[in-house]
Design a protein that fits this description.
- The chain is mainly α and 416 residues long.
- Helices cover 75% and strands 0% of the residues.
Amino acid sequence: MDTYNLAMILIFVIGYLFIIFEHQIGINKATSALFTAVILWALQFHIHQGASFEHLNQHLANITAVILFLFGALTIVEMIHAHGGFNLVAQWINLHSKVATLWVISIITFFLSAVLDNLTTTIVMVMLIKKIIANREDRLCFGSAVVIAANAGGAWTPIGDVTTTMLWVGGQISTGPTITALFLPSLACLVVALAFFSYLLRGKKAEILEKQALTIDPAGKALFILGIILLVLVPVFKMVTGLPPFMGMLFSVSILWLVTDLMHRHDDTSQHLRILSILPRVDFSGMIFFLGILLSVGALETAGLLHDLADWLNSTVTSKEALATYVGIISAIIDNIPLVAACMGMYDLATYPMDSTLWQLIAYTAGTGGSLLIIGSAAGVAFMGIEKVDFFWYIRKATIPAALGYFAGIGVYLLM
């Protein structure tokens, strides 16, 4: 390994530490992520300028699609929230037991994520939790369970997670066998994690917001129903038109924008409910953090470091089951997309045909392994941005149940 590659690894580690210790040093994680990304790409350009420019453009195209998707989802959620739409569900899930509330919300998240995707589902459910749970510490526990549930739910269908979609499009997995093989492992991952959270919350009464405080705008019910329908139709839009998911999300935003403009155009007292007044409330710092992280990982991938890591794993680990397990654990630190892409490049379909154990396990581990750390998945990053969760808080409270669920799912798959 040459000096430049070592320098890139060192810069990435330092930037990662700045993100981890965000609250201790008082520097926003988005700042650290962006700074790290620019320095890494500057080094990469110094080595291979022509080739790097082409790679940077390709990464920007992929990252922009993710950011636009995230922007659209956050905008729709904020519009529903502004009209009090989530209060409808908050009134319905007004349970007296923390454990019962935890299980209801997590199971809804698990199945919704399989149909929608883990990122959008997490955003919707975390915003919903903010309208139900009064105590912040409890709310963060619920949010952590949502992240685990969303990642587990996204792992057993081809459209629930980016990595499963990659494997599906690449021909490594197919729809029916994937659902059959990964549903029970994903469910085991969720159930084991929830059992741990339930033990922590046992015997406690739920501090749930009073129903009287949950006000709903007259248009809240209609906006909630329309918004959820538009979110669920995003993967349908992709299948029908062939356009990438972010186009479907932007199409949904445009429909909701049109509806709210028509709804409030003659009412001067409701101008604060129009989208131009709602946009400033969208968490742009979270999207900038996402941009910095993905650009940083893109620089490492362009330098060939992630492929070197995959090659090292391949030569060191003889068991393909163990290899898939390590891929999931590493994906909690480094984005799972380039890791899965490297695995797809290393193993051909002639050796490991469609729906073989290797591909199914990678689909499961890459999807659920990100739950081990809060910045290990898009769902975790969204949760971190919305609730301003501390990195070490998540390690103390959520890493153990996430790890127990992760290995339980692998065990169930191997037993099957």
